[in-house]
Design goal:
Helix content: 55-70%
Distance between the termini: 74 Å
Mean pLDDT: 86
Order of helices and strands: HHH
Number of domains: 1
Low-confidence stretches: none
Length: 85
């Protein structure tokens, strides 16, 4: 208890520390660690799926842009298209 009452994060503003009994069950550290890891991995997987969806959308737009450029390039005079290679 002494450690918790006297050690604060840098720049923390702590008005008071209260010590009370806790009536609920406290899980052991291994159980907590495992749950936390599963939670974090789930969030990482969800973020990855979101990033892949955005990447797919960007690649679709890139393909569309390439098609538009190719179409417009075909309609240019032959002398100009030689410089675009």
């Amino acid at each position: 208890m002494e450690f918790a009452e006297s050690n604060y994060p840098p720049e923390a503003s702590v008005e008071s520390v209260e010590v009370k009994d806790y009536g609920e069950e406290v899980r052991n550290i291994d159980s907590f660690r495992q749950s936390l890891m599963v939670f974090q991995l789930t969030k990482i997987a969800q973020a990855g799926v979101g990033m892949l969806k955005k990447q797919d959308a960007m690649l679709g737009k890139q393909d569309e842009t390439i098609k538009n450029i190719s179409f417009k390039k075909k309609s240019l005079p032959k002398k100009i298209t030689l410089y675009l290679r």
